[in-house]
Amino acid sequence: MRIESSSASVPDKRLSELYLRRARNELNLSVMVMKISEDPKLQMGLFSMPYEDTYFSAVISHAYYCIFYAAKSYLLIKGVKTKPPEEHRKTYEAIERLAKEGVIDIDLLKAYRELMIRAETLLKIFEDEKEKRGRFTYRTIPQANKLPAVDSVGHARFFLSHMAALAGESG
C-alpha cells in the first residue's frame, strides 16, 4: 500500500499546527528540565528542593514526545491519521512506510535542495528515541541518564526542525 501525498483539510492543518506547537512545548520542557537537573543552585534556591536531584529520565521522555508530535503533525499534512490503540506504534510505522517509499526523501529534497537529509536519519532518530524512552524512563535511575538525555534533546531539535519544514512551517 502506497501512501500518496495529499493536501490536508483545514481541520487537519489546524491539528497539524497544534501538534507542532505541542512538539515545541515538549522540546522546551525537556531543555528546562535538563537545566534544572544540571543546576543544584536552581533546584535548591528557586525551587526550594531539600536536596540536589536529577530528572534526566523526564528529559528523555519529553524529547521523545517532541519527536512523536512532530511526526504526527507531518503525517496529518500527508493525509495520514494515527489514533489509539497503539498510536505510538502506528505513528512510527506510518513514518517508516513514508521513508521506505521515498516520500520523505522527496519532500526533503524539495525543502532543502542543497542539504541532503536522508529519511533514514529521521526514522532512526524516531526509532532510537522510542526505544530509549522505555529503557531509560522505566529501568534506570535518573542520575545515570545524563548522556542519553543530552542526545535526546539534540535528536528532538533535529527531528522537529525537519518535520516542521516538511509540514511547510519554519521556526
Question: What's the structural blueprint in terms of helices and strands?
Answer:
Elements lengths: L9 H29 L1 H7 L9 H22 L9 H14 L2 H10 L6 H20 L7 H21 L5
Protein architecture, described:
There is one protein chain. This protein has helices spanning 10-38, 40-46, 56-77, 87-100, 103-112, 119-138, 146-166. The model is unreliable at 1-5 and 111-119 (pLDDT under 50). The protein has seven helices and no strands. The chain is mainly alpha-helical. It starts with 9 loop residues before the first helix and ends in a 5-residue tail after the last helix.
State the main characteristics.
72% helix, 171 residues, disordered N terminus, 7 helices, mainly alpha, 0% strand
Number of distinct beta strands: 0
Helical content, roughly?
over 70%
Shape: elongated
Total helical elements = 7
Question: What is the string of SSEs from the N terminus onward?
Answer: HHHHHHH
Rg from Cα: 17 Å
From the N-terminal CA to the C-terminal CA, the straight-line distance is 33 Å
Biggest sheet statistics: none
Mean pLDDT: 82
Strand content: under 5%
**Protein structure class:** mainly alpha
Show unreliable segments. Answer: 1-5, 111-119
